[in-house]
Each structure stands twice: as structure tokens, then as C-alpha cells.
Specification:
The strands form 5 sheets. This protein has an 8-stranded antiparallel sheet with strand order 13-12-9-10-11-14-19-17. By secondary structure, the protein is α+β, with helices and mostly antiparallel strands. It is globular and about 60 Å long. Helix 2 links the parallel strand 2 and strand 3. It has 3 domains: 105 residues, Rossmann fold; 70 residues, Dna Ligase, domain 1 (2-Layer Sandwich), CATH 3.30.1490; 240 residues, ATP-grasp fold, B domain (D-amino Acid Aminotransferase, Chain A, domain 1, 2-Layer Sandwich). The relative contact order is 0.12.
């Protein structure tokens, strides 16, 4: 399929990411089809799309995970391609196959690469063979408690038990001693089976004070590969990212150049296509690969802000068979960007807080971006992830970015529901954060110390 033949795209997602994809399509002159559950009938992406199709009731399994309904919607509307966004079916290899079996273009990588990277052990082995350093751990799934204990003792406690098909913190347990292992193994297996349909787990060395560093790449089907620098996603609660920034305050230019060069070389050898993110734990000057996400990331806007590259637009161009619009030498990473993930949650207890938005006023001004599908009168449903907005700010340097972010958070008004805006206001004033002195454990320790 050529680019001129992609005239209509079905957006198989909801919320702010569906709206983000819609906007890229409109700027490219591409017709959009929104799918939605009955709970999202009044959603902004549904209101703005050229066409919309209801695909089921509120539960995601009956709507946004309902593959036959999505394919039927694509057939009914005569769409050319399907963009999965992130979450839901975005990293489902079988969905990618079904999309293409029915004659539609899947805007994402090949099903083989999705499947390969969805298996965390296979992904580690693949990148190890491509010259990427990995976190020490078991060579494959551990079959029983004895095998897990032997591996843990060989590496030394603490260790992490992780689901081979995992993600989002599900099926992950820290183990500090041999006495804790049996219970943690059982819990991790149970969580893995419930979340991913497989109870396979592996053992990995637990790094004490790492940063979470990830590299954004884009690759076309003509051998072109570029990176858009790295993002620091170390501020996490229960393995869920809260705030991201680029560039990382922890890296020097030589380290940044080294890891980005390694990643682009590996991706070129892999023959990957589309957008992807390679994630590492970074500690004491060393990088350790943990996983690759074969989709658009929630935090992609900060990479767009510093690079000027529209990642969604490039995804669509790549899927259409075009070369990347950029070479690496065309990319200039300029300034510092931070993204705050704003959730419909109590800012201290983190309890979900769905409901009707009574008043809504997003911040504005130079280099301030808000990715959100909210509007006054919109009812945030209780059936889905609590992310309702992303506030993204760019500054000439980190200090200017922080000052602008502080001002933007003060301006942001979302009334009628509880949100995590107060949490972000407190967080960015903390001396450790202001100094860039934090790791992946810092946020949870800070929350425990302030609640």
C-alpha cells in the first residue's frame, strides 16, 4: 500500500491518544473513523472524527478489546488502515495479523516483532545478541521454586520475579531473601496468569538505585532508522510512570551518544519498522536493557517537543511504505521537556475518582502543550485507565522548563472531580526533583514520607 492509498484510518482506541491520532490524520488530510463504547458516546474523539461506530458496552473486553467488532467497523466504513494507539490491542501480535489478513494496513510493527518483544526473555536474548547490555537474570522461565532459588542465590539478593509476558507492573515482585521467595513466586505467577494468560516468570537481578532511561526510535522499511534522544521515566509509583523528562538529568553527552548509537544499530539489524521504545535501567554509569515497547508511548510528546518530529505522522508514513522524512543528521534535540501525567485520582490516596467535569480550563502560553480529551460537562467513565490529561512543557533548559511547568500547573483548572494536579505541584517543588537527584524508588519513598 502506498501513502496516497491511505485515505482513511480507524482509530482503535479512546481518550487523549485517540484525539492525538485524529489530529495527526486531519493535518495529513486523512479521513478518521472513531470507534467507541457506549460509555464513550460523548467523547471528544467521537465528536471530532469524520465517522464513528459504537463497538460495544463499557467493559473493555466487550468494546476496545473486541477484535471482531473493530474489524467489522473497519469493513463497514471502508477504512484503509487501523491505528491501535497504546494499551488495549496495540501490542497484540494476533490483532496485527488479523488486521492485515482482512486487507487493512496495521500502523505499527510486524506481528513477528510484536510477538518477539512481548516475550521478555526472548527480547533480552535478541538484544543481547545485537550487542545491547542486559540486566543479569535467568536464561529462561524458572520452572519451580528450586530453579528460582538457585538463580537468585547465584546472582545474590535482592532479585525481581517478572512475568515473561509482562508489562505495567503486573506479575512483578521484589524478593529480598530466600525465605520470601516461595510466596513471591506464587503471587507473581497468579498475577501473570490473570493479566497475560501465562504464568511463566523469570528471575532478574534487582538494581538498588537505577534510573529508568528509554530511547525513542523510528524505523522505515527502507533501512532508515533514527532516534529522538532518551527520556528519563524514573518517577514511578507501583511501576507506573508519573512524570517524564528529556533529556535525562543523569546522563552526560557521551553516555547519551553511546546508548542512542547502540540502539539505532540494533534496530537496523533487527529490521524493525515503525515507532518503538527501548527501555533500560541505568546505574553507576552502566545501561541494562529491560524491554522494548513496540508501540507509541504515553510520553512520546516530550520527544516531539525537543525534536520537532511528529511521531504519529511518521508512524502513518512508515505504514504507507514511505521513507522517513528525516535522517539522523536532520535531527536537532533542543531544550528540555517535561510531561506530567494527570489522572482522575485522589492526589494522596490515589483512589480512582471518575465523575462529571464541571469546569475545565487548560493552561496555555509559549511552549505549553496539553494532550487531553476533557471538556466542561464531560463525564469521566469508571471503566478505563484514570489518565485524563498530559501536560507537556518545553524550556530552553531544565530550570526554565521547571518554572514554566510550575506556572502551567497553577493555571490548570479541572473542577468537579479529583485529580493528581496537586501532587504534581508538590512534586516539582521538591529539592531532590529540582536537582534531578532521584531514581525509580524515590517517588514511592517520598509519597510514604508525606502521607
Amino acid at each position: 500500500m502506498t501513502a496516497t492509498m491511505i485515505e482513511s484510518i480507524l482509530i482503535a482506541n479512546r481518550g487523549e491518544i485517540a484525539l492525538r491520532i485524529h489530529r495527526a490524520c486531519r493535518e495529513m488530510g486523512i479521513h478518521t473513523v472513531a470507534v467507541h463504547s457506549t460509555a464513550d458516546a460523548e467523547a471528544m474523539h467521537v465528536r471530532l472524527a469524520d465517522e464513528s461506530v459504537c463497538i460495544g458496552p463499557p467493559p473493555a473486553r466487550d468494546s476496545y478489546l473486541n477484535v471482531p467488532a473493530i474489524i467489522a467497523a473497519a469493513e463497514i466504513t471502508g477504512t484503509d488502515a487501523i491505528h491501535p494507539g497504546y494499551g488495549f490491542l496495540s501490542e497484540n501480535a494476533r490483532f496485527a495479523e488479523i488486521v492485515e489478513e482482512h486487507g487493512f494496513t496495521f500502523i505499527g510493527p510486524s506481528a513477528d516483532h510484536i510477538r518477539m518483544m512481548g516475550d521478555k526473555i526472548a527480547a533480552k536474548g535478541t538484544f543481547r545478541d545485537l550487542g545491547i547490555p542486559v540486566v543479569p537474570g535467568s536464561d529462561g522461565p524458572v520452572e519451580d521454586e528450586g530453579a528460582a532459588l538457585a538463580t537468585a542465590r547465584e546472582m545474590g539478593f535482592p532479585v525481581m520475579i517478572k512475568a515473561t509476558a509482562g508489562g505495567g507492573g503486573k506479575g512483578m515482585k521484589r524478593v529480598d531473601s530466600a525465605e520470601q521467595l516461595a510466596e513471591a513466586l506464587s503471587i507473581a505467577r497468579g498475577e501473570a496468569m490473570a493479566s497475560f494468560g501465562s504464568d511463566e516468570v523469570y528471575v532478574e537481578k534487582f538494581l538498588t538505585h537505577p534510573r529508568h532511561i528509554e530511547v525513542q526510535i523510528l524505523a522505515d522499511t527502507h533501512g532508515g532508522v533514527i532516534h529522538l534522544g532518551e527520556r528519563d521515566c524514573s518517577l514511578q509509583r507501583r511501576h507506573q510512570k508519573i512524570l517524564e523528562e528529556t533529556p535525562s538529568p543523569a546522563l552526560n553527552p557521551e553516555e547519551r551518544e553511546q546508548i542512542c548509537r547502540l540502539v539505532t544499530s540494533a534496530i537496523a539489524q533487527l529490521g524493525y519498522r515503525g515507532a518503538g521504545t527501548i527501555e533500560f535501567l541505568y546505574e553507576d554509569g552502566a545501561f541494562h536493557f529491560i524491554e522494548m515497547n513496540t508501540r507509541l508511548q504515553v510520553e512520546h510528546p516530550i520527544s516531539e517537543m525537543v525534536s520537532g518530529v511528529d511521531i504519529v505522522r511518521e508512524q502513518i508514513r512508515i505504514a504507507a511504505g514511505l521513507e522517513l522524512a528525516y535522517r539522523q543528521e536532520d535531527i536537532t534535540l533542543s531544550g528540555h521537556a517535561i510531561e506530567c501525567r494527570i489522572n482522575a485520582e485522589h492526589p494522596e490516596t490515589f483512589a480512582a475518582a471518575p465523575g462529571r467535569v464541571r469546569d475545565y480550563h487548560p493552561p496555555g502560553g509559549l511552549r505549553v502543550r496539553v494532550d487531553s480529551a476533557l471538556y466542561a460537562g464531560y463525564r469521566v467513565p469508571a471503566h478505563y485507565d484514570s489518565l485524563i490529561s498530559k501536560l507537556i512543557v518545553l524550556g530552553a533548559n531544565r530550570n526554565e522548563c521547571l518554572m514554566r511547568l510550575r506556572r502551567a500547573l497553577e493555571e490548570y483548572v479541572i473542577e468537579g472531580i479529583q485529580t493528581t494536579i496537586p501532587l504534581h505541584r508538590r512534586l516539582i517543588a521538591e529539592p531532590d526533583f529540582v536537582n534531578g537527584d532521584y531514581d525509580i524508588h524515590w517517588l514511592e519513598n517520598w509519597i510514604e514520607g508525606t502521607t
